[in-house]
Amino acid sequence: MLWDPITRDVPKNAQIVMDLARKAIALRPGIAKNWERLASHLLGIGEYEGAIAVLAEAVCTFRTEPRLHLMLADAYCRAQRLDLAHEIFRQSPAVPTEDRGLSIYRLKVLLKLLVAMEAVKDAAHVATETLALDPTNTNALRVLGEFSRKNGNPEIMLPICQGALKHEPGHTQAYYELALAYAILGRPEEARGLIDVDRFISVAEVATPQGYADAETFEAALASEIGSDPTLKPDPPSKATIGGFQTMDFLPHGRQRAISDLLAQIQLAVTRFATSLTEGLDHPFIKRRPERARLNAWAVVYPGDGRQAAHIHRYGWLSGVYYVSTPKTSCEDLRKGCLVLGAMEEGLNVDPPWGIREISPTAGRLVLFPSYVPHATIPTRSPDRRICIGFDVGPCSA
Fold it and tell me: How many other C-beta atoms are found inside a 10 Å radius of the C-beta of residue 347?
């Protein structure tokens, strides 16, 4: 497995790219692509207000360019300024019918906006329209799956998911939605045939990287870097964290040496795991193993009542968690703080036909599992914080 390179100069390089984009705009302000590039970089690093400022100026210059208007609506939506997002989207120029890519992007922005506005029925309609153009659209599959369950007709997801899996075998969201539909429809054997909480699971201890006196020193450095990360925010929107704090994806650099060292260790562990996948080579999970992979990682900090609601990592192939620090477990309840693989979504009165597997959190422990496996956590109920790093491994986009 080859890895998309992670360098300590990512922020510096990102700044250089944005400086070049600004210079391109200054030199040739009449080229829409220059504005798009700068706004895309700002959106990619979470600088939503900066992207809004750039795009607001751009749409005044390019009044008939639909992509810039849609990007501005997207930026407002990400910044939780939904009224403005809706207004900009409503005023955006029509997309040429022959431009399939831009048509899909328009539906993507509209779907995101409708979900944020909790317009469930309209979102389901747009999701259906999206899947007609893009059968493997992850967000549309998720939205339509949730709608089908709330309305008591999960059977509609069977042909949709089966069609998506023909286009892309092992597609994480389609794979999960199909298994969940089988479970709700009382077809447990078919559900278990898709999700197995004992297969493709790895639990291991990570060795302390060189340059640290011992494991405790390494864990203390990680905890310090995570605690000082400026993106650490309570209960980020659209995330599974409840009663906790979560960072955005890490951009490793010199000031986060311990995190960078850990991500290198995780890459080594994932490479060993991927290489070991020889049993059942025709399994969709193995067939979808990326030749060239990217690693996206973030940190989560939980107080005693913090937890993760049941969810999957819909954009990953393989997901995992590394425990930085964990409260001491009580003999009275050894389940406190456990990672629960196979956990069913809240509100569904169905026992998971694939069963569950509980894994105790221990500092230095690394757990790997397929991204389609639903999982949750049990609160620790401890005054001490639990700190962990979650991550996804997926194919490189380029």
Answer: 8
In sequence order, the 6+-apart residues with CB closer than 8 A to the CB of 341 are: 197, 201, 356, 357, 358, 359, 369, 373, 374, 375
| Cα–Cα distance measured from residue 395 to residue 392, given in angstroms and rounded to the nearest whole number | 10
Name residue 300's amino acid: V
Cα separation, 290 vs 287, in Å, equals 8
* Domains defined along the chain, listed by start: 1-118 (1.25.40.10), 131-194 (1.25.40), 202-395 (2.60.120.620)
Q: How many CB atoms lie within 10 A of CB 128?
A: 15
pTM for the predicted model, two decimal places: 0.90
d(CA 303, CA 364): 19
Other CB atoms within 10 Å distance of the CB of residue 27 = 9
Distances 86 to 83, 97, 116 between C-alpha atoms, Å: 5, 22, 11
The per-residue pLDDT for 9 is 44
Rounded Cα distance between 98 and 114, Å, is: 25
Q: Which two tokens stand for residue 356?
A: 């569950």
Assess contact for 70 and 51: CB atoms under 8 A: no
Residues 6+ apart with CB under 8 A from 350: 183, 184, 344
Residues 359-381: b if buried by 16+ CB within 10 A, e if exposed: bebebbbbbbbbbbbbbbbbbbe
Handedness of CA 388, 389, 392, 393 (dihedral sign): negative
CA 193 to CA 372: how far, in whole Å? 13
Q: Consecutive sets of 10 residues in the chain, 398 residues long: mean pLDDT of each?
A: 66 72 92 93 88 96 96 96 97 95 97 95 97 97 96 96 96 98 97 95 95 96 94 89 92 74 95 88 91 94 93 97 87 80 91 95 96 95 92 86
